[in-house]
Amino acid sequence: MATGRNHRPATRSRGIPEATVARLPLYLRALTALSERSVPTVSSEELAAAAGVNSAKLRKDFSYLGSYGTRGVGYDVEYLVYQISRELGLTQDWPVVIVGIGNLGAALANYGGFASRGFRVAALIDADPAMAGKPVAGMPVQHADELEKIISDNGVSIGVIATPAGAAQQVCERLVAAGVTSILNFAPTVLSVPDGVDVRKVDLSIELQILAFHEQRKAGEEADAEAASRKGPDGDMPAVMPA
Amino acid sequence: MATGRNHRPATRSRGIPEATVARLPLYLRALTALSERSVPTVSSEELAAAAGVNSAKLRKDFSYLGSYGTRGVGYDVEYLVYQISRELGLTQDWPVVIVGIGNLGAALANYGGFASRGFRVAALIDADPAMAGKPVAGMPVQHADELEKIISDNGVSIGVIATPAGAAQQVCERLVAAGVTSILNFAPTVLSVPDGVDVRKVDLSIELQILAFHEQRKAGEEADAEAASRKGPDGDMPAVMPA
DNA sequence: ATGTCTTTGTGAACGCGTGCACAAAGATAG
DNA sequence: CTATCTTTGTGCACGCGTTCACAAAGACAT
């Protein structure tokens, strides 16, 4: 049992750096938009601007995939869309299960971007018997008892956990035992998984706290600059100061 | 990953590395759990395990905050909770607005972790007039016309964008113009913001695509391993190497 | 007081990611 | 065909983050 396997497998996946992989979806989205506007080619400078990254970085990223550009011209949009899609494995169908159909789970089930590209919601699963059979996003919720069967029957390898924190680890273990090897975790918990299983975490609370940190820093710098006169009644005096 | 803050200027946050800041909420969560179990002290090894990180990394992270540990003993849980909370700016109240009350926006409004620690949902805003006045999470949705007034009246500096992609940039600009300096973006778009504004992005679709990449790689390796074992004992010979 | 034991705090080495700057490659015009 | 212009692909250097390994610091027992 490995402790929270959040760090990368350390092995560069087929020579493609993790940082590059994380940007490929970004490029793909920008390219898809260009494709819909029937733009035939795009330069690294233009595409980088659309994706919000540095053009040198983009070119280096693409160089890991191969030499798909034409010097003096740029990149063929359609060809690049295909190459990135293939590299990301989006040319095949990925059945996905969502476990925990509360507010968030339901929102995820309704999320359009889910079905759009290669991903298909194979089932919605909840532990509450009262939810069973209830339609969410045009699909009946199934009871957690069926979890193993659903995963096996549909060949699901990607699971989304949207349960309360307390249930997440247990759900995770059942998913893994049933054959899931990639998990997207929305529950605010560190998941322990065996080697070979990938976990990605989406944590609203953490993102907000990081923003708060920077916000506080900005406020502090402002106050220092302005000699601090008009700040709200709640300063940050220590209310609790344990020894 | 935030596109608006990719090239972070020289504003290195008071000497605390960004990577460390991103982990502080993780430590805080683990410490809060210990605190609730009335555990008085914790070693770096134990806490690191609970947070799913390396213990040396944790100690180095804490060293940026100061010397809050006692050699031979560990860290005082309550004291550390306070120090990290203060460092993250969670000892003060952060009013937050959520713009775009669709499935996701409603889920966020109902999310408990929101209110739990310093963050308070000041208003729910939507552009659809039919939504106005409708209660979501015990709070009436307000029309987008009121956006500037709401932000100004409540001193909101953090905004959450949960609108469709097409509306995100425009909403973002209005938020920034009204005084918001930190944005959490759930819309699948690259946001352009002026310097001094922090953007963090949460993108379900990107996370799934990254998982798909690794999933595909796993499947490929399996196939390679099979092929290799079928061929002969020496496993690491020329895999697929396109010219 | 002294020695032993535990655990922190950190110097140093290393590896990854980023961005600059430029040569190579191809398009295009004359 | 040659010259020029555009844009890619990448060698290189630099800085950040991670990890190791250990000395310093304090607790605790005798």
UniProtKB/TrEMBL annotation, chains A, B:
InterPro entries to which the protein is assigned, alphabetical: CoA-bd (IPR003781), NAD(P)-bd_dom_sf (IPR036291), Rex_actinobacterial-type (IPR058236), Rex_DNA-bd_C_dom (IPR009718), Tscrpt_rep_Rex (IPR022876), WH-like_DNA-bd_sf (IPR036388), WH_DNA-bd_sf (IPR036390)
Pfam family name, one: CoA_binding
DNA-binding annotation, residue ranges on this chain: 26-65
Main location: cytoplasm
Residues binding NAD(+): G100, I101, G102, N103, L104, G105
Name of the featured protein: Redox-sensing transcriptional repressor Rex
Segments passing through the bilayer: none
SMART domains linked: CoA_binding (SM00881)
Keyword Manganese: no
Segments of skewed composition (Basic and acidic residues): 219-234
Record domain CoA-binding: where: 89-190
Subunit composition and interactions: Homodimer.
Family label: Belongs to the transcriptional regulatory Rex family.
Function according to Swiss-Prot or TrEMBL: Modulates transcription in response to changes in cellular NADH/NAD(+) redox state.
Matches recorded under HAMAP family: Rex
Region (Disordered) residue spans: 219-243
Cellular localisation: Cytoplasm
